[in-house]
């Protein structure tokens, strides 16, 4: 059990800040994979994996509804908008229901999520049918009633023989009967009977009924490639298609959806229109018609809109990245790059992810599809620090790619580089981590000797073999943690050999394993070096630090140490028991830490003070599993790649600039009831910052480690300062550059 959790909980309780009130988040969900659509009046509602967007058919306006607006960010299984109540009902996998009103107030109904009788993997809403102010939910366990006015669950009908659970694909009504497309076949009952009693449900037909819908007051059903009318306990086949039906809906026409086409039928079951899929790499999901137009949900291109007189569709979706599975990030000077590859704990890239990549520049997304790259499982990305228009992408299967101005200009694999194909049954060029040194050389990790590859600015290659430092039992499958220090020493986080260091100047290779617990959690997953030269290392069970790791090159014995916290006389180890996935040092020398399962932590320079702890429960973070973190040193914005998507936080720390012409404090004025910190930005590195009150009393002083420093509104941590005006006096070491800024604190 982690000993950091109670420590952190106490700090948060004492802090008492509002994450939403103090800081802004930037929504960055993908809206191209549409699971379901609904038309209400003249608005199309579209369900993305963990968010909703709306499209006004009259004005063309698009609005996003996501975790930034109050949703949890969890995966959505279905949704329903009720025009009378003007409420959006969002049903998440796992059972949580969220209700959002017109003012975007969110009410959460967790009763189903907390129900232990129903397995979690069955709490999926397959289809929703409204009847008055009740929603009938077709789920993987039965039929559940949800009262829209009271925001409460009603009865649940377990319709399998003996009253057991079974998957219900769809529910609908005709006359006084309720019908369900169940695993056992098509079943029905009188709506006025005791539907809780499984004995009142009669099987009407066998076979695998996949959909039920109403068209022109007639109940329609789907079995495979056949369409039926249903009356009482009788059914009549009215149409047979060449392929199995994917989904069906009724509007002005019957809209039958297949992967590659839409067929519209009239009320006499004649073909009205056939729309073929113009996108060879995409699939249709669902179609609906509205005012003679057709709107089609797709898996990769949002909504396709066809007017009545054209076969050239309009594409509808918010400007967004490609997918909600970001794995690797890099950002510099307001240019963000996102890649979507992945691999398991043994660094195996199979099955292949044939995804493209995305970049966010000038507040617009540009997506580069797979067919322009032909690289699978792209897992890391790095921007050339001397030329931000040049970007490198690496894959544990497809080698290295070089892009210039968003175009792939070079592809390196074992045919044209020192990479070695280690898979006798498959062409495999495996590259994992990469970083630039101060001379603009790109260093890359390779899973076999030579373990380090270097791509030089002139496009030539050299290698560095560090195999002598690995234990004989070590199987180096991949290294995805690399950091290069100010002296261009290379540091690698390994699977079971601790931290490996390589000094290019001498060719000396070392490993540092002392202090790392050898209990099966030695795979290093987080590594960075701060502005004081201290190495921060994390794995699946602990956080450790190492002062001056470069001394190990001289033969000095060095050892990793935990950070000890004393609270109420009890010694605790910082982040002990946490599964750390990433560590990043920001411009103020503070530390961001991503975890698997506990969200993101933000600590001060030495880790003794928790500044923020973001989770999906207390912030718009869409998941508590963090894959990567990237910090824009120019703006201070922090980007989080999570299991359920990408999101950005408007951070406070920036890298040092070239002058102090634009020094300012933020927020200013400071409302101390909501804000616990004020940040002074626009600094040079290593300048002295002294904060005094109007009488000249010193209340805070620090030396900047980057372009900003944060003050906690206390007099050297002893007591909170009073309301009033405070002055920050800023000067460099020889006094040749000075600057001041005023701060107003309101309590």
Question: What's the structural blueprint in terms of helices and strands?
Answer:
Elements (H helix, E strand, L loop, with lengths): L3 H12 L3 H4 L2 E4 L7 E5 L2 E5 L4 E5 L5 E4 L10 E7 L4 E6 L4 E4 L5 E4 L1 H4 L10 E7 L2 E6 L3 E5 L4 E6 L10 E7 L2 E6 L2 E6 L11 E4 L3 E7 L2 E6 L2 E6 L2 E7 L6 E4 L3 E4 L3 E5 L5 E6 L7 E7 L2 E6 L4 E4 L7 E3 L11 E5 L2 E5 L17 E5 L2 E5 L11 E4 L6 E6 L3 E6 L2 E6 L21 E3 L5 E4 L6 E4 L5 E4 L16 E4 L5 E4 L5 E5 L4 E5 L13 E4 L5 E4 L4 E4 L17 E4 L2 E4 L6 E6 L5 E5 L4 E4 L6 E5 L11 E6 L5 E6 L2 E6 L13 E3 L3 E2 L6 E4 L6 E6 L4 E6 L4 E4 L12 E8 L6 E9 L1
Parallel strand pairs: 59-65
Antiparallel strand pairs: 1-57, 2-3, 3-4, 4-5, 6-7, 7-8, 8-9, 10-11, 11-12, 12-13, 14-15, 15-16, 16-17, 18-19, 19-20, 20-21, 22-23, 23-24, 24-25, 26-27, 27-28, 28-29, 30-31, 31-32, 32-33, 34-35, 35-36, 36-37, 38-39, 39-40, 40-41, 42-43, 43-44, 44-45, 46-47, 47-48, 49-50, 51-52, 52-53, 53-54, ...
